[in-house]
């Protein structure tokens, strides 16, 4: 029998040969996961890991209600939407019903990238202009048009002429050292400036696409009033506000169903992905009816797998579980409980510079100097790997890679939070 | 109890309200399909249809082996590829093993659009140039970059500067009335000319992306020698040949596993989609190892659902069924049998101008004048709708929409072919 090291070496060799050495992997020593259940993952040696990372299995790994819905519909019919079927309508109705009022029509697609592609095509067609604004540390997907916006992997390389980035809004490292209303004005002013530049360059302004909770940016606390001001500029210029709910959506914030609802500004288009099918490839777009009708009138958009009965059965089952198990309330309660525990650890460890987030999406920013806010990137890497060794899976985000990313499946309990907190306490003591 | 008309009217009203009136539907009076099994689809009234259209359920609607594999793996683990897992490696190994030799590395993604996006990004990065050649009547997907190539829905609008179209090769309506080697030279010469124009314009030439059996073009018989000559020009100019196997792949042609193998020219990159997961959203790319390694070195490409254990279990199960049920051989045998029956109908009905195809992918071109080859578009529409009324589902393709498209699930039997042929005989008699 091979031990785990040999097994992993063998798997890595095959992986490099078949997928390429550059195919991304987590951890200095990757884990070989073979089983998932609820908030738990298990490796090939039977070692159990608390999953504090994965938002795709939003209602818990391999949730029976979702798996049974998948199975049942897969046995019955799995075909495209050019025939009539009830399920795509029921799902679209339920989904738009969960969104704020003007978002009344839906596209069901397969991935968040495909959803953002539609949003960009719709915004550019509606305005007849090309310019898209995004933040300076974000990711919106892997296709060419959305990759242009995904500054997080561009190593500082400037985007093409049709994309401009603005500094993301944050209070922890505020723009020009400002605070309060002045900070919100200044951050929103960056949006205004980018719009003006697009217009001056003859490219014109189509819209602003942001993650509604700025997840890849490091989950910043946003200056109060920023969203109203920034989107005020966007709309004054005739542009569209597109909210990417791939990370912030489906009850994760605990407060509301969608990330954009935490700011009180309703987008013109919202895009969805990761948690939508609990692992089954499902993405979606909801938008103002006039925008969808206009797009549909001019563009023959068809998505082979998008909206098929299996996707919709799975999507419905995910929503069932969110409701039946009160997972939004759980996200709020356990999220706040976890946050309180992290604040206690902040009192104990100088390394913790900031703790912030929404519901069960929490960022813990690590700094070697609280005054200077010096990013503790190497310490963050060490902690992420040591947490893994001790059976707790998390990751890191942020401009400096120094923010611990905690984004567990939503059935995460207070007991799970206690295990996360005590393990983190132990690991912080070793750094 | 509501009758079917009322039901459909109700479904259409909801559909227009939730998805938009422009969301595409088949047939003048759409069908409400609720169940699928093998080569059969059933509507809400229990009416049975022979499916002569769908290549997504390639091994048959709701095939139990595929459904059970989906169910089993969904109960066990469904998570991304940044942890190690055997299945993505086994599937990548099996898939690359089925392709011609230099195509040794794989990406597993969710859709054909995502696969073609990778191919374009890879070709443009490898060459450092932007120009892509495609045919003048094709479709390669729904994202912005591949939509640029999808002339089929552009109503004659010219593509952007980075895309040039060439006339697709065909013998039925040959370029400039040429024939034989001269025709092949002339068609390939169009490719050479597009390459030269890209270079002269300073855009440069990155590659040529084609469906390896020119499906949307109407499944033309390709002038002998065309592929060697055209791809000779492509490679001489340092460009890449990208074969889109979304329609031609997975044994459909009967002769070989992949469409490109029917021409004898191996591509640098092949992309896959529709039939790959029998309805489960799976797409893929196989390519030369040097191309993948180069891309992976410079681009952080990650696909959330791509390559997850459930996708791979389903993909493996589809390949199992193809092998166990000898579906490639069946595609050849029954495809040839169907073709013979269609030739007999051609003797009987002047409307049938040409019958052509590969295995279980057959095009029947309808013309009102065999000499002038006048496209019988309206008759084609009538026949497609009347076939549907009589319980046989097919569609139409081609520049003039006058080619009956026959592309059934591969377990299509001679009995099924007899039903198709006799129904078509009856319907042709009514036109």
List the helices and strands and how they pair.
2 copies of one chain form a homodimer.
Chain A: H1 4-19, E1 33-37, E2 40-43, E3 48-51, H2 64-76, H3 86-98, E4 103-109, H4 112-127, E5 131-135, H5 144-147, E6 163-166, H6 180-200, E7 205-211, H7 226-236, E8 240-244, E9 269-272, E10 283-288, H8 289-298, H9 309-324, H10 327-348, E11 352-358, E12 361-369, E13 374-375, H11 377-389, E14 392-393, E15 395-397, E16 403-406, H12 414-428
Parallel strand pairs in A: 3-14, 5-6, 5-7, 7-8, 8-9
Antiparallel strand pairs in A: 1-2, 2-3, 4-10, 9-10, 11-12, 12-13, 12-16, 15-16
Provide the descriptors you would attach to this structure in a database record.
Aspartate Aminotransferase, domain 2; 2 domains; 39% helix; 431 residues; 12 helices; homodimer
Q: Estimate nothing, just give the exact number of structural domains of chain A.
A: 2
Average pLDDT confidence of chain A is: 96
User: How many angstroms separate the termini of chain A?
Assistant: 35 Å
Arrangement of strands in the largest sheet of chain A: 4-10-9-8-7-5-6
Helix coverage percent of residues of chain A? 25-40%
Strand content of chain A: 15-25%
Our Rg estimate of chain A from Cα atoms comes to: 22 Å
By CATH reckoning, the class of the largest domain in chain A would read Alpha Beta
Any guess at the CATH architecture of the largest domain in chain A? 3-Layer(aba) Sandwich
- How many DSSP-defined strands of chain A? 16
Q: Per the principal axes of the C-alpha atoms, what is the gross shape of chain A?
A: globular
Low-confidence stretches of chain A: none
Order of SSEs of chain A: HEEEHHEHEHEHEHEEEHHHEEEHEEEH
Assembly state: homodimer
Determine the number of helices of chain A (DSSP H or I, runs of at least 4 residues).
12
Give the CATH superfamily of the largest domain in chain A: Type I PLP-dependent aspartate aminotransferase-like (Major domain)
């Amino acid at each position: 029998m091979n031990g785990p090291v040999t097994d992993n070496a063998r798997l890595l060799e095959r992986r490099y040969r078949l997928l390429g050495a550059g195919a991304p992997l987590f951890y200095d020593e990757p884990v070989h996961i073979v089983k998932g259940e609820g908030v738990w993952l298990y490796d090939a040696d039977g070692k159990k890991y608390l999953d504090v990372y994965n938002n795709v299995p939003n209602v818990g790994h391999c949730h029976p209600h979702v798996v049974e819905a998948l199975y049942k519909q897969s046995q019955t019919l799995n075909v495209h939407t050019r025939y009539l079927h009830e399920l795509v309508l029921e799902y679209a109705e339920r989904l738009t019903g969960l969104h704020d009022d003007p978002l009344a029509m839906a596209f069901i697609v397969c991935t968040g990238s495909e959803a953002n592609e539609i949003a960009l095509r719709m915004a550019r067609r509606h305005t007849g202009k090309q310019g898209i604004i995004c933040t300076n540390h974000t990711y919106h997907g892997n296709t060419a048009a959305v990759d242009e916006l995904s500054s997080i992997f561009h190593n500082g390389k400037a985007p093409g002429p049709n994309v401009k980035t603005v500094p993301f809004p944050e209070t922890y490292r505020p723009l020009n050292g400002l605070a309060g209303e002045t900070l919100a004005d200044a951050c929103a002013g960056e949006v205004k400036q980018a719009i003006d530049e697009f217009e001056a360059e003859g490219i014109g302004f189509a819209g602003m696409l942001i993650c509604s909770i700025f997840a890849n940016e490091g989950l910043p606390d946003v200056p109060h009033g920023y969203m109203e001001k920034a989107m005020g500029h966007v709309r004054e210029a005739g542009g569209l506000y597109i909210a990417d709910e791939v990370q912030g959506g489906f009850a994760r914030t605990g407060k509301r169903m969608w990330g954009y609802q935490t700011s009180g500004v309703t987008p013109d288009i919202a895009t969805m992905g990761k948690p939508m099918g609990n692992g089954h490839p499902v993405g979606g777009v909801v938008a103002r009816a006039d925008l969808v009708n206009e797009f549909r009138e001019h563009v023959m958009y068809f998505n082979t797998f998008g909206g098929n009965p299996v996707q919709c059965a799975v999507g419905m089952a995910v929503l069932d579980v969110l409701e039946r198990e009160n997972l939004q309330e759980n996200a709020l309660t356990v999220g706040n409980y976890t946050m309180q525990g992290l604040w206690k650890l902040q009192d104990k460890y100088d390394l913790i510079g900031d703790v912030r987030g929404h519901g069960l999406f929490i960022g813990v920013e690590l700094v070697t100097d609280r005054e200077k806010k010096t990013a503790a990137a190497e310490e963050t890497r060490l902690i992420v790997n040591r947490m893994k060794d001790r059976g707790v899976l998390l990751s890191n985000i942020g401009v400096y890679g120094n923010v611990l990313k905690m984004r567990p499946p939503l059935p995460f309990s207070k007991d799970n939070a206690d295990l996360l907190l005590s393990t983190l306490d132990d690991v912080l003591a070793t750094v």
